[in-house]
Design goal:
CATH architecture of the largest domain: Roll
Helix content: 10-25%
Number of strands: 28
Radius of gyration: 47 Å
Oligomer: single chain
Distance between the termini: 129 Å
Largest sheet: 6 strands, antiparallel
Mean pLDDT: 90
Number of helices: 11
Number of domains: 5
Amino acid sequence: MAPGSRCLLLLLLGTLGAPTLGDPGPLEDVVIDRYYIPKICLREAQMGDFIRYHYNGTFKDGKKFDSSYDRGATVAGVVGVGRLITGMDRGLQGMCVNERRHLIVPPHLGYGSIGVAGLIPPDATLYFDVVMLDIWNKNDKLQITTLSKPERCNRTVENSDFVRYHYNGTLLDGTPFDSSYRKGSTYDTYVGTGWLIKGMDQGLLGMCAGEKRSIIIPPFLAYGEKGYGTVIPPQASLVFSVLLVDFHNPKDGVFLEHLEVPESCKRRAVTGDFVRYHYNGTLMDGTLFDSSYSRNQTYNTYIGKGYIIPGMDQGLQGVCMGEQRRVVIPPHLAYGENGAGKHKIPGSAVLVFDVHVIDFHNPEDPVEIETVFRPEGCNVTTRNRDFVRYHYNCSLLDGTRLFSSHDYEKPQEVTLGANKVIEGLNSGLLDMCAGERRVLIVPPHLGHGESGARGVPGSAVLRFEVELISMEEGVPEGYLFIWHGEPPANLYEQMDLNKDGGIPADEFSTFIKTQVAEGKGRLMPSSDPEKVIADMFQNQDRNQDGKITPDELKLKSDEDQEKIHEEL
C-alpha cells in the first residue's frame, strides 16, 4: 500500500539533524535534512495539527514509488496521531509553511519487514522530499492583522451592512487563487447574512472605510473538506489581504457633517430654493470622481424638487449661505446598484460631497433692504423718474468683489425707473434720503438672471452697499420738460425771440433755459442738460429743417390726446 494511500501526514515538534544523505548504515531514527527554511516562520507543525503537503517518495537508487504531484493533489491529514507511518509522522513535525525537507525513513519506522506488495519491498529504506503547504488546528481562530487604518473612523462594519472591498486571496503558502484587482472591480456583498464564507463574514466586522487588513481563515471557516473548484484544495487555510473601499446599511440616511457654519445665519435653505454651490465629490476611499472647482463654475439647482440625487436634495436642506458641509450619501439615495459610468461612480458606491454654499434664493424673494444709516430730518426721498447720484460696492454673497463706483472719478448717475439699472437696485434706491446708506441683497430674478452678465455669474445673488449722494426731482415718463404752472397762452410768440416766424435751435435753447432759471419749469434731470434741450428741439422740428414753425410746436399733453409724439 502506498504511503499516500495510508494518509501520509502529521507533524511533530523537534527537528533531527542529519549529516548527509549518503548511506548512513542501519538507522535508529528518521534522518531530517531541512534544506530550505523560510525566513519567516509564524508557526511550526505540532502533534494534533492538520497539515497539507506535497511529497515525492523514492528508494535509495532514486526510483520513485509514490508522489502527490503525480496525483495532482496535496495530502491532507493530522500529524502525530498514528495515521501516517511513524517515520513520516516524526519527520513532518516542527515544519514551517513553505519549508522543504529531505527525510530518510528506516524500515522499522516505515513499512518494516512486510513492505507493500508490489510497491515497497520488505526492509526498504524510504526517501521523501517534502514541502509543507498548510498548518492549522481545530482550535484555531480567525487571525486578523490591521495593516493600515485611517485617522478618521466614524463608523465600522456591522452585520447586515453592505460592503465594497478589494482583496488578494492566497493559500497559506502564498499561492494566489483569486483577486478583485485582477477583475478590475470591487467585491460587493452583505456581511453577516451568509453570502460569504464564515471567516470573511467575521473578518470584515469592525473595519473602517479605507482600512487594510490581513485575514487568515482556517479551513473550517472557509471551504473545508470540499475546497472550491480547482483553485482551493480541500482543508486549505486562506489568506486575504483586504482593502475596505466603502460600506453602508440599507437603512442608512444621509449623514451630515458641518465643517464650517457662519456665525451669522439669518436664513436656511428650504425646498423650492435655488442654490449655487461648489463641491468636491469623492468615494469613501478618497477617490475624486467630480468637482465643480475643476470647471471653475458653481453647480446651480433647485433643492427638494428632484433635479438632483435624493441624498443631495436632503443634504442641502437647512444650509446657510457660506456654509461648508460634508454630505455622505448611501447608494440607495445616490446612483444605486448601477452607478454612473460618466462620473466614474461604481455601482453601490457611497458618495462623499464636500459642499461650499455660495448663495441661494427663492423665486418669490423681494429685494432685501437693510438701512445702515439714515440722516435725521429726512423729509424728501427718492421716487421713480428722479435723477440720483450714488456710490456703490457690488459683491457676491461669498465676498467676491465685482464692481465699485469708487473705482471711477465720480458717483454713478441714473434716472430711477428708466430701466437703466437692474430692477433690484432700482427698487433699493427708492425712498432714500441724500446721505442715506443701505445694504441691498438682490436675488437673480431682480438682478442679472440665469445668464448673468459680464463678470457676474448666472443666477447669482448680489450684495450692494449703496450711499445716496444727491437727488433731483424728475419728470413724468415720456417728458423731457414740465411746466410748474400753466404754460404761456402765447407760447410760440414768446419762444420766437426775434419775431421772424421761425424758431431755430439757439432761440429754443435760450427760451427753455430762461424758463428753468425763472422757476417756471424744469428739465428732465441729466448730467447733460444741453443734450436734453437738443432732443426736445429735434422732437419739435418735425420736418427736420432746422427750425420750429407754429404748426410743428405742440405741448406733450396735446400730443398725448392726439396720440402723436412726445414733447413739452
